[in-house]
Amino acid sequence: MSTFLARLGRASYRHRGLVSVAWLAILGAIVALLVTLGGSFDDRFTIPGSESQDALDQLAEVSPGAAGAGAQIVFVAPEGSTVADPAVAGAIEQVVADARRSPQVESVASPFDSQAISPDGRAALATVEFGVDRGELEEGSIDALQETTGTAEDAGLEVAVGGNAFASTGPEIGPTELLGVAVAVLVLVLTFGSLLAAGMNLLTAFIGIGVGMGALLLASNVFTLSSSAPTLALMIGLAVGIDYALFILSRHRTQLAAGMDPEESTARATGTAGSAVVFAGLTVIIALCGLSIVGIPFLAVMGIGAAGTVLVAVAVALTLLPALLGFAGSRLVPKPGSRAAKREAADAAETTGAGGSMGARWTRLVTGRPLLTLLTVLVGLIVLAVPAPQLELALPDNSSAAPDSPQRQAYDLISENFGPGLNGPLVVLAQGLEPATAQQSAQQIAVALGGTPTETPGEFEGGLDDVAVAIPSLLPDGTTGLITVIPESGPQDAATADLVADIRDRRPALEAETGAQLAVTGQTAVAIDVSERLSEALLPFAVVVVGLALVLLLLVFRSILVPIKAAVGFLLSVGASLGAVVAVFQWGWLSGPLGVPTTGPVISFLPVILIAVLFGLAMDYEVFLVSRMREEYVHGAEPRAAVVTGARHASRVVVAAALIMFSVFASFVAIDDVVVKAIAVGLAVGILVDAFVVRMTLVPAVLALLGRSAWWLPRWLDRILPDLDVEGARLGGTTPATEDREPVGAGR
After folding, report:
1. Which of 46, 106, 57 is nearest to 431 (CA)?
2. Does the pTM of the predicted model rise above 0.85?
């Protein structure tokens, strides 16, 4: 592996013009296609094969309007008035009439016809059905519907338009998010002591992001892409793009400071640090692609899209960066007397005794009493993870929208005047009814579920506890009925999920009595099924991803205990990350400073996203840090000395990489989208804990305790496993003393 990558780095160095033009051509082609074709987002959470989704698809075939996008117009009369007052009623009817003429609207149910009026008479609710699915709504249809409310507002009514037709347009990236890049620039300048080196690092990262993000947006013309997917890909792609170039460039600068020729140094840096980049990137890609096993399409696309940006970042680091190093030549050599040159000289002269770099001193500190370090870290991480078991999951609805958005205002008004259940009604689809008795059978189902049906939402009597059932309606085919069940609880409440289960438990008896085939559907039921699928898939997903990554780490380190240690450390980091998410988004700790609008359940797919991303990124640090330690051990150092010396070489880069990743993720906390905000908080805390507590503290202590047994591998397994030579042992040394050997990757 190292020999191949060294040859690749040397070839890119020698043919730097061709390589650079090729990458620019790829970027230009993607941008041109993106300008021509554009991209689109779809935030529907679907789950093929589930009862609710299959029923919704069948309903769409029979009655597209009933299964299509819907909106709600809620009216609240001024204090002292009711919606029955002639002036108020007239304004409402005018809005309803105007709404019926809005683009793509199939029908509008007047609140006076459906009796959707609050018990105190001050609020009314009009229901709008579009003739198409939400993904097929044309630009401006929602805006046109919102513009119809002017008559009621002029009459003094409070009006808001909401419903499932409102979809996220995608998080907006603003100046605040660019603070992460600014911090990255500062960290790179301090790390390298060179504006040129820092600029090259950022340039490669931005080109990789441009190619990866552009390709992902183009893919939205073929695959369903949620609005959160590009933001996740941007966060991860930017972080790893900077970090992977940092790993190789830092190794290159160290070798240049030791007197190595720029071309030879480029080849060796690509062969050694590049090997760590390849396997770190593969681990991230495996973890992200592992989201596909959950069986939910939007999540699979999100994971594969983010994995694509990581793949591009690896390719850029291994080809474009060596090409740019060729253009820079010897200009990257630290100037004599500069801070960077003194630092490299101090590192080169440092032994495992006192003194040396801060990384070496810290490693000696934590390995001096490794058992005490281990116990202290374990106790601290367990305390941080205490809130994690209380994690509550749900899919986002309009209650998690920005407080000043129209859909959030409509949600709050409906909850206040009609109860939260009307924001997420359940639909029982009854198919196969006998035409002669269809209405009677539908009525029988309604009575069994909710007692005597009522036309007034909010009145609960008979049947299941805390529900109201609207008068059943028959579709035009005469054999399909719709029974709307309105819970007392909100769409994200556990009581609503329990209600769905109760209805499904009653289904066999009702089917036997009526001869119909029943299914619970609607957007709320779909969301509940998605959440349940994600919960069921969490453990298998973690087992598969961690298992594959353990195999990869076994190949990299040729050790049994090191991969196990890496996995355990990762689990501790995830626990701390989820604990922070619960504390902020459910308990409300620091919710004000972090701009969290409401507390409650977090997005259902957050745990699998955090597991996938954190595992991959944590392995970045594990591979780069421990590979340098193993490299020293392979070249003859004693186990504890190898740990200290490896940390001396790698700690500064790992710290810089972690600070860059943390700043990038933390900058996305400022985004209003609560889904992205939760992911950003989880990743920022996870990276901080994993890099500084687990990798820089726990890992050296454990390796010091294990000694030589850390690198133990059964002989029979050693013979079976391929030797990937990640440490670059076949490349020889990396100091000027080895320059009399045949140049690496030069061929014959």
Report:
1. 57
2. no
